[in-house]
Write a structure and sequence with these properties.
The complex is a heterodimer of chains A (about 100) and B (about 170). With about 100 residues, chain A is mostly helical. Chain A is built from three helices and no strands. Chain A has a domain at about 25-90.
Chain lengths: ~100, ~170
């Protein structure tokens, strides 16, 4: 087995741990944390592929940097929404956010 | 095991570290334990970047994730946590389905990667140096670079607008 396979396997496992957290946990902040773990897994796959593949020409490393910046923006806006919602509803549990339910 | 410029045991240590801390994030009952576990998971990923010859990404990972994003998340936890007693239902009802989806997803991804020829290349590292990377940022990808900074400013303004309490209008 090649080195890239092992790094990609680690990235897939981390991604699926994050996906499980997003799907299964009730706390919104923990959902945001699991999303960050998924983004980290994608970054790991990008950096590993850019490290071993000649065709990437460094763009994979660059895209990992862009994803880190966009993740920072995403977590800022997401937590601002969570706090604004907490101020109105006094809860951070996902299954209580049902005001738009028909 | 991946060889290259480092001993294969380094990969095993980093992989075990990242996976155990990642599982800790989704399985701990107390959310503050999850947050600390997440910090260590990000640190492990930074070590993985360092092993993959991407020291710039490793440093930025430590600065942004371990430094900034963790602090923001811990502040959000401290601002919102329900103080009176713990709640028992920390998993929702679809936990079994979520576990199945995650496991099947991991299996499908691993199968696709193993059946493709993506790994049929040498083990030698091809990551560009800092000089080449900065040339990429400021020459070829300068427009996405500026766009990302615009997105960051917009996100900061949006977060301030969302999180400030509305004043009563006279």
């Amino acid at each position: 087995m090649n080195a890239l396979y092992w790094w990609l396997l680690l990235s897939f496992l981390l991604f699926c741990i994050g996906a499980f957290g997003v799907l299964a946990r009730r706390n919104v902040i923990l959902v945001v944390m699991s999303l960050e773990i998924m983004l980290n897994a994608v970054n790991l796959a990008l950096v590993a592929t850019a490290n071993f593949r000649a065709g990437a020409k460094g763009a994979g490393t660059l895209f990992a940097l862009f994803i880190i910046v966009l993740a920072a923006a995403e977590v800022t806006v997401g937590l601002a929404i969570v706090i604004a919602n907490y101020r109105n509803r006094r809860t951070v549990q996902t299954d209580t956010f049902d005001e738009l339910k028909g | 095991m991946p060889g290259g410029d480092f001993h294969p045991w380094f990969f095993v240590i980093v992989a075990a570290w990242v996976l155990v801390c990642g599982l800790g994030v989704v399985l701990f009952r107390k959310i503050m334990y999850s947050a600390v576990s997440m910090v260590f998971c990000f640190l492990g990923v930074a070590f993985a970047y360092a092993l993959l010859n991407a020291p710039l990404v490793a440093i930025i990972q430590i600065l942004v994730y371990v430094g900034a994003i963790s602090i923001v998340i811990i502040f959000a936890i401290m601002l919102t946590e329900v103080q009176h007693g713990g709640y028992d239902l920390f998993f929702n009802r679809q936990t079994a389905i979520a576990a199945v989806v995650a496991l099947v997803g991991a299996a499908v991804l691993a199968f696709v990667a193993l059946s493709s020829d993506i790994g049929q290349i040498g083990d030698k590292s091809l990551t560009p140096g800092l000089r080449q990377l900065s040339r990429l940022i400021f020459d070829r990808y300068v427009f996405p670079f500026e766009l990302v900074s615009l997105v960051l400013v917009a996100a900061m303004i949006g977060a301030i607008v969302l999180a400030t309490r509305e004043k009563e209008r006279p």
